[in-house]
From TrEMBL:
Pfam families: MR_MLE_C (PF13378), MR_MLE_N (PF02746). The keyword Secreted does not apply. One of its GO terms (molecular function) is metal ion binding. Keywords: Metal-binding. This is Mandelate racemase. Residues 154-365 form the Enolase C-terminal domain. InterPro entries: DgoD-like (IPR034593), Enolase-like_C_sf (IPR036849), Enolase-like_N (IPR029017), Enolase_C-like (IPR029065), Mandelate_racemase_N_dom (IPR013341).
């Protein structure tokens, strides 16, 4: 079997409301690139990458010269063809590699008639538990779904618990002053004291702000404090002063950084992302290293549609240890591009697909609809806020560049 064509399609899929974070806003939609890898045996595999547009589609098409004629079963060779570490200093293709790897694993599973998890060692569980992913949100075009006040946040948590059954809650912070966010985070902990919690301000706090936040919330049932400040040394300084575990998807996202973290510990829990690490297989390799050195692991979300969510589920299926509910933006989406619509949560969990390959198929009517929407709207800058046009992020934020929770936007 040989690869004959790579077909990328950029889409934008609406969210319930714009999602605010420390470095900007998701502007009411996600932009993703769906990648189809065709073969000479008529089997097509699908992958997905964050971002998109002409540049992403061109980057994937340029890989055809590397990959036409490549055997999709040769996934280790695939990694070195696309993303060897020296060449990647000049043409970082890690996320491109991930999307192509997803598609090749999908092809392999379809060819053999088995789910992807069977190719990766077999599943250890039948379903994967998810955390709620709580964002401060601007109201949508109908003036609905705003999350800015304590009352709105608590109402949102209850809504998600009632609708999806979440028992673990992650608050994406770094939007408002940490004292205000700490107050709201503690309010969740007080009201839902039997649940688990985590807080992620995307590295925008100083070491001192991080330590203060950690000490004021150490009474809660916290899984970990995620990326409170920037850099391995910054995280190490925080870790030395607090009792909570620290997690990251920012400062340990490759094997060189993982080795440094093992030699000089800065982080306790490594958040594996099937895109950031370059594919499912790379995440499994990293998890094996973490298990050897008794580092915790969890699964990170990077704004997925159903194709990448399937990769997260297959990863979650095969990891021997899953001590934490995994992250997903998925419940914020209004729709998906896979047949049957969005995958369904039950009791805070999603069942692992058991059809051959990744277990999802593209709904081409939806793909076309959201590709046309992308062509109409274009992309948006991740690190800007459309309602604060003169604002830009500074890390750490010690200059009072925080949003005002008393202001209506």
């Amino acid at each position: 079997m040989r690869i004959t064509r790579i077909k990328p399609t950029t889409v934008t899929v609406p969210l319930e409301a714009p999602l605010r974070h420390s470095n900007g806003v998701h502007w009411g939609r996600f932009v993703r690139t769906i990648v189809e890898v065709e073969t000479d045996e008529g089997i097509t595999g699908v992958g997905e990458m964050g971002g998109g547009g002409e540049s992403a589609e061109l980057a994937f098409k340029q890989l055809e010269s590397y990959l036409i004629g490549h055997d999709p079963f040769n996934t280790e060779e695939l990694k070195w063809k696309i993303s060897n570490p020296t060449a990647s200093l000049y043409n970082n293709r890690t996320q491109l590699l991930a999307a192509i790897e997803f598609a090749c694993l999908d092809i392999m599973g379809k060819n053999l008639g088995v789910p992807v998890y069977q190719l990766l060692g077999g599943k250890m569980r039948d379903e994967v538990e998810f955390a709620s992913y709580l964002f401060f949100r601007y109201p949508n075009e109908n003036g609905e779904h705003e999350v800015q006040t304590k009352e709105q946040l608590l109402s949102h948590v209850q809504e998600l618990k009632d609708k999806y059954g979440f028992r673990s809650h992650k608050l994406k912070g770094g939007v408002f002053h940490p004292d205000y966010e700490c107050e709201l985070f503690q309010a969740i902990g007080e009201k839902y004291s039997s649940d688990q919690f985590r807080y992620d301000p995307n590295c925008i706090l100083s070491v001192e702000q991080s330590v203060k936040f950690a000490k004021e919330t150490e009474w809660m049932n916290n899984d970990y404090l995620e990326d409170p400040t920037w850099g391995l040394n910054g995280m190490r300084r925080v870790r030395e002063k607090i009792s909570q575990s620290l997690a990251t998807n920012t400062v340990v996202v490759n094997f060189e950084q993982l080795a440094e973290n093992i030699k000089n510990p800065s982080v306790d829990v490594i958040l594996l992302d099937t895109t950031f690490w370059g594919g499912i297989r790379q995440c499994i390799k990293a998890a094996d290293v973490c298990n050897t050195f008794q580092l915790g692991t969890a699964v990170h979300s990077s704004g997925e549609l159903g194709v990448q969510l399937a990769t997260m589920l297959h990863l979650g299926a095969v990891l021997p240890s899953m001590p934490f509910a995994i992250d997903a933006h998925y419940h914020h989406l209004k729709d998906d591009v896979i047949k049957g619509g969005k995958m369904r949560y039950q009791d805070g969990k999603i069942k692992i697909p058991d059809k051959p390959g990744l277990g999802v198929e593209i709904d081409y009517d939806k793909l076309q609809e959201y590709a046309e929407l992308y062509n109409e709207l274009g992309g948006y800058p991740y690190d800007r806020d459309p309602k604060r046009p003169n604002w830009f992020p500074v890390l750490p934020n010690t200059n009072d560049k925080w949003a005002d929770p008393r202001k209506a936007y």
